[in-house]
Fold:
Amino acid sequence: MTSLPRHPSEGAERERATLAVARAARALAAAGLESARAEAELLAAYVLDVPRGRLALADGFDACQRERFAALVARRVDREPLQHLTGRAGFRHLELSVGPGVFVPRPETELLAGWGVDRARRRPAPLVVDLCSGSGAIALAVAQEVPGARVVAVERSPAALAWLRRNAAARVAAGDRPVEVVAADVTDPRLLAGLVGQVDVLLCNPPYVPRGVAVPPEVAGHDPDEAIFGGADGLDVIRPVLARAAALLRPGGALGVEHDDTHGAAVPALLAADGRYAEVAEHRDLAGRARFATASRRGDGPRPDTGLAWQTGYS
Structure:
């Protein structure tokens, strides 16, 4: 049997990282993962405790590290989320702790968060509310990027709340302004009663996948069902959120809600039909899929529905 070549500085017990990564990437690609090489590098960097960009300069894997790396690759082949394997997920400028019981934040949601950051920056001391906060990704991104903001994060799941509080505490330790965590159901018609008419920006990434729609194995087997599915049409949570947001927002306040890519017409239609919103717009992600809808709170009360007249765009 021919042994693998070793780098002279690694010693007999070490395997060069590039060789281990190449082998792992082949296994991940065979399992159907599109970003096999990148994921192999991320797992290797995690095991070696080095930045991904410095893998080529890192010491090789010793026997224990090889065994650990192989175990993580095998779990990823079985479609356990990469973020569960490393215990962390990147979101905008943050690194969040994630794991069983909390929805792993997706890159697409960074678009909604960025839109919210932009709107919050237009006020000197904005009040921002993040509903269905989960890991706290949106709320903590706003708190970091808009230091003068008061940010309230609402979540009902006890498991998700534990991750949210953990991430919030970590950001305070890093110097960010504390986020106020509220344990509550966003469909409660009395939600945040003390903030009625005061909120400048309200953001929400609710469960919105229609029940019965097939989702990837990483989602189906690991993300909480209550954070994914939004009833038969996917709108069971969005409907009450839009109604409550109209009560919480000040006149001119901004609302942004992520939705399923099949809801590009349905959510703007709900906003337009409500009568309390203006400037309804639908936003697409970089792949051109309908991703989130936005609106501003009217200052003159409800008006009769005169038909749908929303805009579409990327910003």
In short: The radius of gyration is 22 Å. Strands lie at 88-91, 94-97, 127-131, 150-155, 180-183, 199-204, 249-258, 277-284, 290-297, 311-313. The first strand starts at residue 88 and ends at 91.
